Amino acid sequence: MPRFALFLLFCLGIVLAHAEYERSVPAANSILSKRPGSVVVYFTQPVEVRLSAFGVYALEVPREAWGSPVRLRQMAQPLVRRLLAGNAGRRVDVGLATTARTSRSVVLRLRPDLEPGPYVVVWRNLGVDGHSVSGFFVFVYRP
Amino acid sequence: MPHEHQGLQYVIRTALYLGVFLLLGTGVLVRYLGWKVSRPQRWWAWQVLSGGFLLAFGASLYGAYHTVWMLGDTALLGRYLWQTQQGNLILLRLLILSLLLLLSMGWFRWDRWLYPPLAVGLLLTLSLTAHAAGEGVVGVVADLLHLVLGVAWAGGLLALALLWRGAPPEANLRALRRISQVGGSLFLGMALLGGYLALVRLGDLANLWTTAYGQRLLVKLGLVALVLFLAAFNRFWLLPRWEAEGRKGLYLVGLEAFLLLGVLGATGVVAGTEPPGPTPRAPSLIRIAEGYGEGRFVGQLFSQAGVIHLYLDLRDKEGNLLPTGPALRVGLEREGLVHQEVLRPYHRSQYHLAYLAEEGGVWEVWLELPHKRLAYVLWVGR
């Protein structure tokens, strides 16, 4: 019986809801002193990599705002809306390094000459359950 | 940001389930449960099969188109079908649907052996393109078995209700008895698996009534309970009496089948709704009781189906409402999403706020009373 209960608990532990953002490297709202070479985003379930869109964009805001991730997130929203509507932004990644068809994590390579400043990582993914989820997070590179 | 859903997705999923249940249900009835029901009316059986095929085929193709439309570019349809796991599964589904239609022509010698793996394969393509796809092997297997049992029982019953009229009464009765005999075990298995899947997707039992997914699931469960009640009434009370009286008729199978259509519709809606996911990391209901002068503020702050509600009364020490109340400031915040407003009484000293949260998760809520500021952390499920 205890074995069965453990099995049930293990099974019930697999609780997921679409391909939502789980975590990332660099973490959301983090301030980095070292220039990052890539961004890794982990989702709660695998995404169809080839039909999902990912990008890292420079967030052009006053320097005073760099220290407040909450404020940066607020300031990033108009840019994110524009990007998701198909408009161009100042992209700082050089594309996906992930080659798998479906994956729970995606790796975006960043330009080697990344300048200090705040950046926003934006995506519109297609989960393996057929649902599309869009989202974003910000991080700051401040050496 | 919330993922993008369209009402059309519910219709597509419902059409897909209905088509598959009609196609496979007729196949199960014709082969295993009551071939004498369909024999005198092959042409009508073929029409029901073809209708199911067309519904499932059309819903799969249109579903693929709808997915790329949601992604913002319908020109991606080819890439979606060829280069994604889901697209490949949809192509496989179209192939299996065509093979099942071919099998129903009765040209193949090994039909009884070919049919089960093809039917299970078709249902597997459904599981692997729905919520179960993100739930690992256990989730996929549970979802697949749930579908297999559902098709054998509900699909068979649906097909019987459609083919009943032109068949000999004895053949109908025999088919109905067979469905009833296996129905109990099939339903029990289906209910256990459905319960397990619901628990996995809800994360917490409270999500059954506090989230949109849970509430839609409740509607489905209500319809299933009605079908079960009707089936039991049919089997244990009506059928024996009518048989004793020598009456021949539809009994309540038609009504059961009609309710099953409702169950399939509810399944389509549930399949298109985002499950609430992980166990809440904060309460979704907070009771407020704060003294103020001679009286006190009492009320509740809670979330339900993605909406944050605040009900607050200012009452005197006897518990009566005051003639009026002061304006209060309230703020809601989650990762950069901020909403602030000034609450004024809508009736005497009663306040109400309803705010549709853009995102599910943990929200910070603050409330400025005239004499102090209250701060809460609230879980918002969707």
UniProtKB/TrEMBL annotation, chain A:
Keywords: Copper, Signal. GO terms for cellular component: periplasmic space. It holds the Pfam family CopC. One of its GO terms (molecular function) is copper ion binding. GO terms for biological process: response to copper ion. Residues 18-139 form the CopC domain. The keyword Signal applies. The keyword Signal applies. It comes from the Bacteria. It comes from Meiothermus luteus. InterPro entries: CopC_dom, Cu-Rt/internalin_Ig-like, Ig_E-set. This is CopC domain protein.
Automatic annotation (TrEMBL), chain B:
Keywords: Cell membrane, Membrane, Transmembrane, Transmembrane helix. The chain crosses the membrane at residues 15-34, 46-69, 89-108, 113-132, 144-164, 176-197, 217-238, 250-271. One of its GO terms (biological process) is copper ion transport. It is found in: Cell membrane. The keyword Cell membrane applies. GO terms for cellular component: plasma membrane. It comes from the Bacteria. It is a multi-pass membrane protein. Residues 174-269 form the Copper resistance protein D domain. Its main location: membrane. This is Copper transport protein YcnJ. It comes from Meiothermus luteus. The gene is ycnJ.
